[in-house]
Amino acid sequence: MKYTLLLVLFIAALFRSASAQTAAPPVVPLGVWADDTGDSHIELYRCGEELCGRLVWLRQPTDANGKPRLDEHHPEPNQKTRPLLNLTVLERLTYNPSNDRWEDGKIYDPENGRTYSCYVAPAGKDRLEVKGYIGFSMMGKSHYWQRVKATKPGAE
């Protein structure tokens, strides 16, 4: 009986210490990031509890006529006239602490008008792996973005 009581107390103490530990908050990659081609900068920002991103700089922001580049490859005709600058290209990314990444989101590629599933994961200091895929993440392509400018916490 004495051993049973000790065992119950030990197990209760284990559960209490485990529940007292809180998971570290995720490092949110807020700020401006250069894509791996150097042709665009994407600002990552919070949209509620999720992570989103928009195009904020283009190496070639205008077309041959000097007009702002448009989303001409979008599959929906009514979207083809929207400007690329400030276009949302990442959305609905949620943090998964077991993988230490932002996942289950969507990434839009204005170069071909396609939308892919994606995740964003830290890949070193001021570097992100951004992977777009169809179906399984193993079948996708990773890109590595470099931080251009950080956003101060609370300034989102």
SSE series: HEEEEEEEE
N- and C-termini, Cα separation? 58 Å
Number of domains: 1
List the total number of helices. Answer: 1
Roughly what percent helix? 10-25%
Structural class label: mainly beta
CATH class group = Mainly Beta
Query: What share of residues are in beta strands?
Result: 35-45%
How many strands? Answer: 8
The biggest sheet amounts to: 8 strands, antiparallel, barrel
Mean pLDDT: 86
Which tags fit this structure?
globular, disordered N terminus, single chain, eight-stranded antiparallel β-barrel, 156 residues, 8 strands, 1 helix, mainly beta, Lipocalin
Describe the overall structure.
- With 156 residues, the protein is mainly beta.
- It is 12% helix and 42% strand.
- The protein has a single domain, classed as Beta Barrel (Lipocalin), CATH 2.40.128.520.
- The chain has 1 helix and 8 strands; from the N terminus they run H-E-E-E-E-E-E-E-E.
- The termini are far apart.
What is shown here, in short?
The protein is mostly beta strands. It is 12% helix and 42% strand. The chain is globular, with a radius of gyration of 21 Å.
Write the layout of secondary structure elements.
Elements: H1 2-20, E1 31-34, E2 40-47, E3 50-58, E4 88-96, E5 101-109, E6 114-122, E7 127-133, E8 141-150
Antiparallel strand pairs: 1-2, 1-8, 2-3, 3-4, 4-5, 5-6, 6-7, 7-8
